[in-house]
Amino acid sequence: MQIILYELGPTRSSRCRWTLLEAGLDFESRGNSSEIFECEELRKVHPLGKLPAAIIDDKPLFESAAICSTIADLVPERNLIGRPGTWARALHNQWTSFVLTELEAWLWSTDLNTDERGFLMPRDDQVPEIVHQNRKLAQRAAAVLDAQLQKTKFLVENRFSVADIIVGYTVSWLEELEWIASFPNLSDYLDRLCEREHCTISRHK
């Protein structure tokens, strides 16, 4: 099997790198510099020229949750994701969908509208006033995760899985924005994830 990962450290591609390392799969890394965004090769895989993107046995795939889930399915013996049709898989879908739509969307909007460099969005197009609303919506979702993680160490069947890789990245982002202080269970969750050998999360304490 040939796997190519288009990546850049701080981006969501770190989810895919972590999953590949947990899966024990060899892969070729391309990118890891800002020049990757100017690469026509990347646009052939991701129509918006964004990261992450991957080629798995000559088939292009983009979106980090899709890439991570696909990688996990390639190595069922690693038990990184519930089998299709199981309740564990339903919970995987639930928590990954929840964190991407109800939490990460507001964090991304905040970064877009506060980027002083104008790299993510031109400064003239930014609406920094939206950050207050973003924070309220993000913390509403964070409270749901915090309550869940008061009852269990990990999100699916109380064992580490790809759902934790996807969600953990977003919780780390919440910490980076300094919006995590009210959620001690999320901070403890990041501590547990960072104990793993292949963790790619950066802490922002």
Radius of gyration: 17 Å
Mean pLDDT: 95
Element order: H for helix, E for strand: EHEHEEHHHHH
Helix run count = 7
Q: Strand order, biggest sheet?
A: 2-1-3-4
* End-to-end distance: 39 Å
Morphology? globular
Name its key features.
8% strand, alpha+beta, 205 residues, 7 helices, 4-stranded mixed β-sheet
Task: Give the helices and strands, then pairings.
Elements: E1 3-7, H1 13-23, E2 28-31, H2 40-43, E3 53-56, E4 59-62, H3 64-74, H4 87-114, H5 131-151, H6 162-176, H7 184-194
Parallel strand pairs: 1-2
Antiparallel strand pairs: 1-3, 3-4
Helix pairs in contact: 1-3, 1-6, 4-5, 4-6, 5-7, 6-7
Give a structural overview.
The chain is an alpha+beta fold and 205 residues long. Helices cover 49% and strands 8% of the residues. The chain has seven helices and four strands, in the order βαβαββααααα. Strands 2-1-3-4 form a four-stranded mixed beta sheet, covered by helices on one side. Strand 3 and strand 4 form a beta hairpin. Helix 4 packs antiparallel against helix 5. The chain starts with a strand and ends in an 11-residue tail after the last helix.
Summarize the structure.
The chain is α+β, with helices and mostly antiparallel strands and 205 residues long. It contains seven helices and four strands, in the order βαβαββααααα. The protein has helices at residues 13-23, 40-43, 64-74, 87-114, 131-151, 162-176, 184-194, and strands at residues 3-7, 28-31, 53-56, 59-62.
